[in-house]
Design brief:
Radius of gyration: 20 Å
Helix content: 25-40%
Number of strands: 14
Strand order of the largest sheet: 11-12-8-7-6-13-14
Distance between the termini: 33 Å
Order of helices and strands: EEEHEHEHEEEEHHHEHHEEHHEHEH
Number of helices: 12
Length: 360
């Protein structure tokens, strides 16, 4: 099969190729007012996946009989897809990860005007090599403005924290001024005795605005999968515990576009996991809606695109859609394309098509 899904775009744009990102890679080619999305080839960390990726590119371009005006790729320089694009001999366009998530939702819903975008996932590279993942944006086609982000937390050990939620819980405790409790609370973890000092010194603790890591911190504080078998295991377990989301008054602080959930995280300490799951999800839904509402005030935009892998969480998605509707917004979510990285190339392609249309 050469393509998995075909989408009607808001309008015809020049033919472009988008090569996706690293995780759950897909590629996308546009022709006229249609975008053609390949099946997911997997993470680009094996010879087999890379072969499938390169075959998908060749098959789509041959099937559609196009020479792309641009090849769009992620900002991350080390992805195989990025290196392939830069070695293709064609003009290239680097597209910020979270911008692409929001553009994918807009393209699927055939929205050609500005949208507010809430892009929530585990990681995407920011334009200054930052670790992003909890982003509030104003997206106008090929352009975006970052209106806000989740309060940054250190990510102890870097990427390993995505598999060890106790580390993000330790980072939250450190932010609360309770770093001395880390070793006692996580006595079963060999690194816990030194982690407070590591956090104090900022050694291999890159700051991140990731919503995925926020979920991990909550799970670590509630004792859910302190060490996970795969990224996302703990947040998935947390979602399954939800029975009736509850909102914590004063659970967040919004200042200068930054949404800080530290009061909520501190409240989770010592709670039963099921009670904590209800409180975390309910407060998160309320906080995100209030954050969007405040950020929207200077702009005449009422459509809100919800993109990124965190929107696989049905409790978060359903609750936030309802809350935004109650506030007079029009929320749009992924229907056919994935809200996560498999849908990313669709957003890259729509952005690249608009850039090519402008002759840039």
């Amino acid at each position: 099969m050469t393509y998995d899904l075909a989408f009607a775009l808001p309008r015809a744009v020049p033919s472009v190729l988008a090569v996706g990102a690293f995780l759950k890679n897909t590629v996308c080619v546009t022709k006229g007012d249609r975008a053609f999305l390949s099946p997911a080839v997997g993470n680009l960390d094996s010879r087999e996946a890379i072969t499938r990726f390169e075959e998908s590119v060749a098959q789509l371009l041959e099937m559609l009989d196009v020479v792309p005006a641009l090849v769009a790729h992620d900002l991350h320089p080390d992805f195989h897809s990025t290196r392939w694009a830069q070695g293709s001999g064609l003009p290239t366009l680097a597209v910020q990860h979270h911008h692409a998530h929001i553009a994918a939702i807009a393209a699927e819903h055939q929205v050609d005007g500005p949208v507010l975008g809430l892009s929530l996932d585990g990681f995407g590279l920011g334009p200054g090599n930052q670790s992003w993942g909890g982003e509030l944006m104003l997206v106008t086609g090929a352009d975006y403005m970052r209106l806000g982000h989740l309060a940054e937390m250190p990510q102890p050990g870097g990427d390993i924290a995505a598999r060890e939620p106790w580390r993000m819980a330790a980072a939250a405790l450190h932010r609360m001024g309770r770093g001395a409790e880390i070793a006692e609370r996580f006595v079963d973890q060999k690194a816990s005795g030194l982690l407070a000092q590591v956090l104090d010194k900022g050694i291999n603790c890159p700051p991140t605005s990731s919503c995925g890591r926020l979920f991990d911190a909550a799970c670590g504080l509630l004792g859910l999968h302190p060490v996970a078998s795969f990224e996302g295991q703990a947040p998935m377990a947390l979602e399954k515990l939800v029975t009736r989301p509850q909102m914590m008054a004063g659970g967040c602080i919004i200042r200068d576009g930054v949404l800080d959930l530290l009061p909520l995280l501190e409240r989770l300490i010592g709670l039963d996991p099921a009670e904590g799951a209800d409180l975390f999800h309910g407060t998160l839904i309320s906080a995100f809606a209030e954050w969007v509402d405040r950020a929207a005030e200077p702009y005449d935009v009422r459509t809100v695109a919800l993109g990124g892998g965190c929107f696989f969480n049905a409790v978060l998605t359903t609750g936030l859609v309802a809350e935004l509707q109650n506030r007079g917004f029009r929320p749009i979510i992924a229907r056919q394309a994935s809200p996560g990285d498999p849908g990313l190339s669709l957003g890259q392609a729509w952005i690249a098509g608009l850039v090519a249309e402008r002759g840039e």
